[in-house]
Every structure is written in C-alpha cells, then in structure tokens.
Amino acid sequence: MSALAMPAFDAIEATETLEQVLSPTHDLWIEEARQLLLPDAAGEPASWDRWSAIRYLNERLVERLRSERAMVQELRPFLTTREAITLEAGGERAGRLALALDRLARRRGTTVAFGAIATEFLEALSVWCAEIELAARHVRFSKLPGDMQRKLEQLDLGAGTTFGI
User: Fold this and answer.
1) How far is CA 11 from CA 80, 143, 149, in A?
2) What are the boundaries of each domain within the chain?
3) Quick check: 140 and 14 in contact, CB under 8 A?
4) What is the pTM of this model?
5) What is the pLDDT of residues 8-40, one digit of tens each?
6) Helix, strand or coil for residue 153?
7) Interior/surface letters 139-158, b for 16+ CB within 10 angstroms, e for the rest
8) How far apart are CA 37 and CA 24, in angstroms?
C-alpha cells in the first residue's frame, strides 16, 4: 500500500472556491482507491492484495464516503434543488457500490467480479466528485460557516472528516 502525499490545507485562501479546495483531495482519494481496489492490470489476478482492499474498504473508504455525504448535506443552502438531488443520488450510488465491493472482497475467487465492480465504483466516484466540485465552483471558502471552514482545513484523506457525523 503506497501513501499518497496530501496537500497542506493550513493556508486555504478566503477567496478560494470550495471547488479549488476539494479538487486536489478528490484527485488523491480517487487515485488511492484505484491503487487499492483494482487488481494490477499488468500482473496476475493473484497479485491483487484482497486483504488490503478489505481493510481500505472498512477503515477508510466508508468513513470518507460518510464524510463527503455529510459535507454535501451541509452545502445544501448553497446548492440548487437539482444539484442537491444529483449529489445525493451520486453519494447513494457510490455507497451501494462500496457495499457490493465489501461483500465481494470477503469471498474467495471473486477477483474478476471485484475488478468489474471496482471499475464501476471508481467511475461513479469520479463523476460524483466532479459533480460536487461543479456545484461548489461558486461557493467561496470565506462564505462557509466557521465550523465547516475548520472541518475543511482539517480534511484528511486517510481518516476522513467529521461533517456532522
């Protein structure tokens, strides 16, 4: 398992949009998930570390999904109804696929099926993150409530944040 370097968030500019704050962490999150969930395309399916995937699903991914969904809920006052519905649906889809991955990862001989669901999950996650960023493109960091600003400043890809959880 390789560690990904996280950008420093201790210097978020008040004029930055939420999109500018979230985009780098979303990119790293998706790359981390890709590295841990997809079997090595160049290697044999047996080279896939199933237990690392299970640990990632249970220890990090679930918490990060919860955190992102909670953040979307806190953003509702800044979103149109259509954006809120779209983001909620994207979060639900990512959550369902993560649950399917967890179930498959626990069964032996499911590497190929797991890889297919992991690919679908990563596509859904990428779209959902892009939708969050698009919806947040006009939201200035300085306009967010103080507690949400602090949570974003403490954003940690590994542990997730705690938006109202």
Assistant:
1) 29, 16, 12
2) 18-38+49-153
3) yes
4) 0.80
5) 444 566 668 889 889 999 999 999 999 888 865
6) helix
7) bebeebeeebbebbeebebe
8) 20
